[in-house]
Amino acid sequence: MRLTRTLTAALTLGALTLATACGSSDGEGSKGSPGGQGFTPPKLSARKSLGKAEGEVNLIAWAGYAEDGSNDPKVDWVTPFEKKTGCQVNTKVAGTSDEMVNLMKTGQYDAVSASGDASLRLIASGDAAPVNTGLVPHYKDVFPGLKNQKWNSVKGVPYGIPHGRGANLLMYRTDKVTPAPESWSAVFGAASKHKGKVTAYDSPIYIADAALYLMKTEPDLGIKNPYSLDQKQFDAAVGLLKKQNANVGEYWSDYLKEVSAFKSGDSVIGTSWQVIVNTAQAEKAPVKAVLPREGATGWSDTWMVSAKAEHPNCAYKWLDWIVSPKANAQVAEYFGEAPSNAKACDETADKQHCATFHADDADYWKRVHFWTTPIPQCLDGRDDVKCVPYAKWVQAWTEIKG
Fold this sequence. Notes:
With 402 residues, this protein is an alpha/beta fold. It folds into two domains: 14-166 and 299-370, Periplasmic binding protein-like II (D-Maltodextrin-Binding Protein, domain 2, 3-Layer(aba) Sandwich); 167-297 and 390-401, D-Maltodextrin-Binding Protein, domain 2 (3-Layer(aba) Sandwich). It is 30% helix and 17% strand. It has helices spanning 14-21, 78-85, 97-105, 116-124, 207-217, 231-245, 255-264, 274-282, 312-322, 325-335, 353-356, 362-366, 390-401; strands at residues 56-61, 88-93, 111-114, 128-129, 153-154, 157-158, 161-167, 169-173, 198-201, 248-252, 269-272, 287-290, 296-306, 338-339, 368-370. Strands 1, 2, 3, 4, 7, 13, 14 and 15 form an eight-stranded mixed sheet that branches. A five-stranded mixed sheet has the order 10-9-11-8-12, covered by helices on one side. A two-stranded antiparallel sheet has the order 5-6. A hairpin with a 2-residue loop joins β5 (153-154) and β6. The longest helix has 15 residues, at 231-245. It is globular and about 60 Å long. The two termini are 31 Å apart.
């Protein structure tokens, strides 16, 4: 299995910038509903009812999200869906969030498994339509903490069905890093202790990791949301990452490469995912991981329906299927994340899976700041300043890496 979740340059944010600039000026934003972002999306309506299945559905998905047995005969939740619904699944695997956004703009796809750094762009550009959750029966069993969030809804209107979630952890070699780290300071303030063997996630969104650390350690900066940074706050996060760069041996996006680096000792500490920890430990690497005391960034993916979907009935059937207990359990175990459906925990082959991935641990997820697209309108409710949009994060990331 070779899964990647690379978040690379996002240079096509014009639609999002325009939508936010044209948003309401009544002050309604994140001070209002959980999904309020201070902008008004194009006026699109959710479907009121479903009709006859069209016979196929075209999906854009992360690798591992729509397995049909072709990669592993034992891993297949697509074929049962096809047999049950009569909807043939055609999947385009995307390697980056930007690729997903661009593919959705073609109008050739019905649904996409968007991460939080892509979902707002799709909403603001009018490429994703609101979702009628009443047409998705299994939505009722989705963990409450995943519903009506700022990356999958706007002003209380849902734009998708939560798929699963995960945290970006601090992983370290137990034989090389002592004492066991409890803070992100191990890869920021004290990174020189492991110069050349520190690893970091290769994406502009990693700037939020630095911002989160500063939010907890430098309160005078006034950071309230690591994805909502004014120019001074942004410059501080970028400055911290430029200092860190001198100690970074490798920036990773392919999780198998990170596993290899920790096994060989080329990397001894850095940001990671639970699936990487599990894989490295299974391959006898002496590693552990921790959610540091400052908290962490993370991802929560959402299945969204295209506003131009040619097969909306099959798309809705897929949304309900992928969050049904058994299918949601299968994909969560295969990819390595917490399922979104609470009942999926009873369906996992590994009965400790949900405990390992903190599926129903509300306090754990309160410490995770999920990827969200940075936009000019500050997501923390401020209306007296402009925040730095994602396009600027992309430019800064190039400078950080040198």
